[in-house]
Amino acid sequence: MNWDAIVIGLGGVGSSALHAFARRGLRVLGLEARGIAHALGSSHGQTRLWRRGYYEHPDYVPLVDAALRGWRALEAETGARLVEPVELLQIGPPSGSLVQGTRRSAAEHGVAVEELEAREVQRRYRGALRVPDGMQALSERGAHLLWVERCVATAVAAAERAGARVQSDAEVRSWRAEGAGFAVETTRGTEHSGALAIAAGPWAGTLLRELGAKLDVRRKPVFWFEREAGAAPLPALFVEQEDASSYYAFPLPGGALAKAAEHSGGDPVADPSRVARDELPHDRAGVRAFLERIAPGWRGVEAGFEVCLYTLSPDGHFFVDRHPEHARLAFAAGLSGHGFKFSPALGELLAGLALGESQVARPPFLALR
Q1: Which residues fall within 8 angstroms of residue 324, CB to CB, at 6 or more apart?
Q2: Model confidence over 89-127: pLDDT tens digits?
Q3: What b/e string do you get for 326-351 counting C-beta neighbours within 10 Å, with b at 16 or more?
Q4: d(CA 341, CA 110)
């Protein structure tokens, strides 16, 4: 069948792109190699953090604001609860990239960030959190948690209600330019479209190999821990340590469990379809040491384990652009472990780029490079 557009990959960004095409009244097909909201890529794990104090670069702040508007619009359209308010506490060396970058974004965009002394953190959280000597704490009370799988499933369902079609278990083998459009070969057959959007997460490197973009896939062990008996409820945490390694711990709403993992590091992955999904002997030590040092309130019983995949660009910034040889092909890749929160904004951007909409303004720092 001939479609106006095809979206390859229905994780966070792809599901949002599918919805964006469908809202335009187009005949759009979404292709997902596995099931909707599956746990084998990068768009799973219960929660993601939305924040405005964006240490990576101030230019992300307008984009993350647009994304929150998109999540709120999806909630209003569907009645789903996708976003939960949470306090975020970021801790790091005063001269480190986390503290300096957060201060810069806060100053440029008027982000409400409170600087806390170690003794105030100790008092506020009754000893369940520690700020080591020489470290600075920054509190952002306007942060949010996103329910990941619910976000993906809700965006796909909304797209289908708007007329989109979805094929699950349809792994893409290849795509090619064909006339004025594209042919996409899957394990279920060949589909044709006038526009194409690729948001394939860890598999993007294979589908976009000819672009030469360096994409480094990493295996990320993720743990859930119970809160220590009697410990105070804790905020979401993001911590840069003195050696530049970074860790996070996000409480689930209700406060009984927290998700914790190392944001830096990770084992290199040669084939995203062949990843060790069980816990390995070296997976736990760094996370346990982080919790013991910073968040002893979360060092209780291990309550769950999962593996997430990061797809890193060389500089940690996204690739969101048109294909240099095919103007109606747009792609998002290399989201580097901090892309999910942007999904509504990036999905809208992908659709606009693939359709050649003149009003679409892609932030320059997202260009293929």
Answers
A1: 211, 368
A2: 999 999 999 999 999 999 999 999 999 988 899 888 888
A3: bebbbbbbbbbbbbbbbbbbbbbbbb
A4: 20
HSE, CB side, 13 Å, CA atoms: give it for residue 230.
Answer: 2
> Residue 170: helix, strand or coil by DSSP?
coil
Q: Dump pLDDT digits (tens) for 44-73.
A: 999 999 999 999 999 999 999 999 999 999
Structure tokens at 369: 């490079």
Is residue 158 helix, strand or coil?
helix
Strand runs (DSSP E) across the chain, as ranges?
2-8, 28-31, 47-50, 83-92, 114-116, 136-147, 165-167, 172-178, 181-186, 189-198, 216-226, 236-240, 246-251, 257-262, 267-268, 302-312, 319-322, 329-333
Distance CA 153, CA 241 (A): 35
What CATH number does domain 2-366 carry, 3.30.70.20, 3.40.50.150, 3.40.50.10170, 3.30.9.10?
3.30.9.10
Please give the Cα distance from 365 to 227 (Å, whole number). Answer: 40
> Mind giving me the DSSP string for 290-345?
HHHHH-GGG-S-EEEEEEEEEEE-TTS--EEEE-SS-TTEEEEE--TT--GGGHHH
Intra-chain end-to-end CA distance of the chain, in Å = 34
Q: Alpha-carbon distance 195 to 354, whole Å?
A: 6
Q: Calculate the CA dihedral of residues 221, 222, 227, 231 and round it to 10 degrees.
A: 80
Residue ranges of domains in the chain: 2-366
State the helix-helix crossing angle for 12-23 and 343-355, rounded to 10 degrees.
50
pTM of the entire predicted model: 0.96
Strands 165-167 and 28-31: parallel
The span from the CA of 80 to the CA of 76, in Å, is 8
Separation between Cα atoms, residue 32 and residue 72, nearest integer Å: 25
> Is residue 296 within 8 Å of residue 227, measured between CB atoms?
no
CA distance 366 to 272: 24
